[in-house]
Write a structure and sequence with these properties.
- The chain is about 35% helix and about 30% strand.
- The protein is α+β, with helices and mostly antiparallel strands.
- The protein has a domain at about 50-135.
- Strands 1, 2, 3, 4, 5 and 6 form a 6-stranded antiparallel sheet that branches.
- The longest helix has about 35 residues, at about 10-45.
- The radius of gyration is 26 Å and the shape is elongated.
Length: about 160
C-alpha cells in the first residue's frame, strides 16, 4: 500500500517568486503614476504665460547671459504655485536656471486681472545671493492678455 501526498496547487508551488514579483509590479505602477503626475504638473507650469515670459526675459538679459553663459536652460524642478480662474490669477514660481558657467534661480511673482499678467517680482537670484531684476524701468510690467479660445459649435457655453 503506497501513500502519496496530495498534489500541490499552482499557488503552493509558485508563491515564493510570485509574491515578490507582484510587489515589484505594484511598486512600478505606483512609480509610473507619480512620474506621470509630476510630468503633467510641470507641463502645466511650463506652458503658463508667467513661466514663458520669465524664461524669455532671462534669456534676453545680457546680465543673466554674462553670469550664466549661453545657452540658458530651465531646470526640471520648478517650485511654486499657479492659480487661474477666468480672467484672474496669481503665480509664485521658482524656476531653476542652468547655464554653462553657473546656475541660478528665477523668481516670479505675478497677478492676473482682466486677462493681463502684472509682475511684482521678476528676479534672477545668482549662486552668490545677488539678484538681477528683469523688469525694465520703462516697462509697464504687463503682458498682453492671453488669447481667448473660441468654442466650436458643438460645445456649450
Amino acid at each position: 500500500m503506497s501513500t502519496q501526498a496530495p498534489a500541490r496547487s499552482w499557488w503552493q508551488r509558485n508563491w515564493k517568486w510570485c509574491v515578490p514579483l507582484a510587489g515589484a509590479g505594484l511598486l512600478a505602477v505606483f512609480a509610473l503614476a507619480m512620474f506621470g503626475m509630476f510630468s503633467l504638473l510641470f507641463g502645466l507650469l511650463a506652458n503658463s504665460a508667467p513661466y514663458q515670459h520669465a524664461i524669455e526675459r532671462a534669456r534676453d538679459s545680457t546680465a543673466v547671459v554674462a553670469a550664466l553663459g549661453e545657452p540658458i536652460e530651465a531646470g526640471f524642478m520648478t517650485q511654486g504655485h499657479l492659480r487661474t480662474a477666468d480672467d484672474e490669477g496669481e503665480a509664485d514660481l521658482r524656476i531653476p536656471l542652468d547655464g554653462p558657467r553657473a546656475n541660478a534661480s528665477l523668481h516670479v511673482e505675478a497677478t492676473r486681472e482682466k486677462g493681463r499678467w502684472t509682475y511684482q517680482t521678476l528676479d534672477v537670484v545668482l549662486a552668490d545671493g545677488s539678484t538681477i531684476d528683469l523688469r525694465e524701468p520703462d516697462d509697464d510690467v504687463t503682458t498682453a492678455p492671453e488669447p481667448r479660445y473660441r468654442k466650436t459649435p458643438h460645445e456649450r457655453p
